[in-house]
UniProtKB/TrEMBL annotation:
GO terms for molecular function: 2-oxoglutarate-dependent dioxygenase activity; iron ion binding. Keywords: Dioxygenase, Oxidoreductase. It holds the Pfam family PhyH. This is Phytanoyl-CoA dioxygenase. InterPro entries: Phytyl_CoA_dOase-like.
Length: 260
């Protein structure tokens, strides 16, 4: 299987300018189907799910892991197709800050308010916004089922104040509304296997799922090694992230993993 592990120069320039870049078909249909089938049958995953309600009370479910291991989710988080691009985007060695599976179920999956990830992570002892995320579409993401929305170039604003909105922490709406008058709102619709790479200061949100189709995604978040937090928090300080071979997802075997 021929895969591209890095951004080319124009892709990296677009990421730096816009604060995000979408790599279409980063993972193929077989790889994503394997992840979806496994997650749907994974009792440990189902048992670790918890909810976050939006301002209207609708709930998005998620499960979060702070460290990469040898499970199938980690094969994606340790993939050089993601990690090498993150090292380009952040200018050096990175480690996994955390990863999470997010589920917006049909008709009931809630919205996420406007926010910057660094609006959360700043308080975890990260001195600089040298963090970024890759959202991998596990199912199709459309306007109807609550795909990611971004304000193009909003990461250039730097970190803005955040406060509580429902169970979530959202960005200062006065500043968001001002930004929306000058910056392009982009609905980032995706097919399974597409991956959105985005800066930790990019303003983003998503609507509730009003469709009959679920929206599942795996989000892998990374911090630069040189941005190692100065204090402990709910997300980890630096530990070496070992990349896997590009074939690791295809060759991963649940029975072999359980036997270890």
């Amino acid at each position: 299987m021929s895969v591209t592990r890095t951004f080319n120069s124009s892709e990296l320039a677009a990421y730096v300018q816009d604060g995000f870049f979408v790599v279409r078909g980063l993972f193929d249909r077989d790889e994503i189907s394997k992840l979806l089938d496994f997650a749907q049958s994974d009792a440990a995953f189902a048992g670790s799910l918890y909810g976050r309600r939006d301002a209207t009370g609708k709930e998005t479910k998620l499960a979060l892991w702070n460290h990469a291991g040898s499970d199938l989710y980690s094969m994606f988080a340790r993939s050089p197709r993601i990690v090498d691009r993150m090292e380009q985007a952040l200018g050096g060695e990175v480690y996994l800050y955390h990863m999470k599976m997010m589920l917006k179920e049909p008709h009931v999956g809630g919205a996420w308010e406007w926010h910057q990830d660094y609006g959360y992570w700043y308080n975890n002892g990260c001195l600089f916004p040298l963090l970024a995320s890759s959202l991998i579409a596990v199912s199709a993401a459309t306007k109807a089922n609550g795909c990611l929305q971004v304000l193009r170039g909003s990461h250039h604003m730097g970190r803005i104040d955040h406060g509580k909105t429902g169970d979530q922490t959202g960005a200062d709406l006065e500043r968001v509304e001002a930004a929306m008058k000058t910056m392009e709102l982009v609905y980032v619709e995706c097919q399974p296997g597409d991956a959105i790479f985005f800066d930790s200061n990019l303003l983003h949100r998503s609507d509730a799922n009003t469709s009959s189709d679920p929206r599942w995604s795996l989000i892998c978040c990374y911090n630069a090694r040189r941005n190692d937090p100065y204090k402990q928090s709910k997300h980890p300080q630096y530990s070496q992230l070992d990349k896997v071979d590009d074939s690791a997802i295809r060759t991963w075997n649940s029975a072999a993993e359980i036997a270890k």
